[in-house]
Amino acid sequence: MFHAPASYTGEDVVEISCHGGPLPIGLATQALITSGSRLAQPGEFTFRAYMNGKLDLAQAEAVCDLITAQTAEAHRAAVSQHGGQLSFAINTIRDILLRVLLELSFNRFP
Questions:
Q1: Cα separation of 70 and 73, whole Å?
Q2: Which phi and psi angles does 2 have, rounded to 5°?
Q3: Contact 16, 30 (CB under 8 A)
Q4: CB-based burial label for 107 (10 Å; 0-12, 13-18, 19+)
Q5: How many CB atoms lie within 10 A of CB 29?
Q6: In the prediction, which pLDDT does 3 show?
Q7: How far apart are CA 7 and CA 66, in angstroms?
Q8: pTM
Q9: Chain mean pLDDT for the chain
Q10: DSSP structure class, residue 40
């Protein structure tokens, strides 16, 4: 059990492990579905993490990039983006621009 808000999605999550192989996995999955559970949609956990503020948009997009990376370079870039490097750079530029706008607005009205 992963309790909110410390889970990946920011919600309470239960992870179930079972022995490998198609038969035990299929039986366990069917038992859970029969009991009212459902399979997660592709990207659902990342979407929930984004909606709950656990990831920003650049980090959420990086998850897809990690899954689809075909080269070591693409994988490294996605890992960096998921780690927040792109978001940090964007926020730094945003903060600089806001300070410039603030400075311009103060200089406009002496």
A1: 8
A2: -115, 115
A3: no
A4: exposed
A5: 14
A6: 95
A7: 20
A8: 0.74
A9: 93
A10: P
Could you read off the pLDDT of 25-43 as tens digits, one per residue? 999 999 999 999 999 999 9
Angle among Cα 38, 43, 44 to the nearest 5 degrees reads 45
Place of tokens 């949609």: 41
Q: Rounded to 5 degrees, what are φ and ψ at 13?
A: -135, 140
Q: Which helix (H) or strand (E) covers residue 24, if one does?
A: helix 22-34
**Which tokens hold the place of 88?**
């940090």
Measured in residues, the chain has a length of 110
SS3 6: coil
Both tokens of 53, joined, read 């503020």
Neighbours of 59 (CB within 10 A): 19
Distance CA 18, CA 2 (A): 17
- Hey, which bits of the chain come out as E strands? none
DSSP 8-class letter at 43: T
